[in-house]
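Bumping my old thread because nobody answered last time. Still need a sequence for this structure:
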């Protein structure tokens, strides 16, 4: 006996509707994830451009320059003149 004829099968349009619904949900999830990623990226970019961050970066650069100059001066003083 053929059991496939006894079970209720979905019609082609029902299957297509299920596939379309699944595809729509996948697109919605992907767009939400993309949107959240863009928001996070924008916030990180804003944080890099704040006045405080720029001032801190400049302060760190100046401190690093001073340390390099100090190290160079101490090396020069230790080695003495090379005639």
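Sorry it took so long. Here it is:
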């Amino acid at each position: 006996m053929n059991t496939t004829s006894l079970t209720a099968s979905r019609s082609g349009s029902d299957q297509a509707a299920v596939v379309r619904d699944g595809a729509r949900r996948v697109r919605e999830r992907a767009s939400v994830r993309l949107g959240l990623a863009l928001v996070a990226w924008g916030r990180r970019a804003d944080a890099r451009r704040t006045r405080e961050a720029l001032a801190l970066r400049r302060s760190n650069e100046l401190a690093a320059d001073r340390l390099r100059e100090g190290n160079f001066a101490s090396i020069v003083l230790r080695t003495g003149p090379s005639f």
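The chain has a mean pLDDT of 84. Let me know if any region looks off to you.
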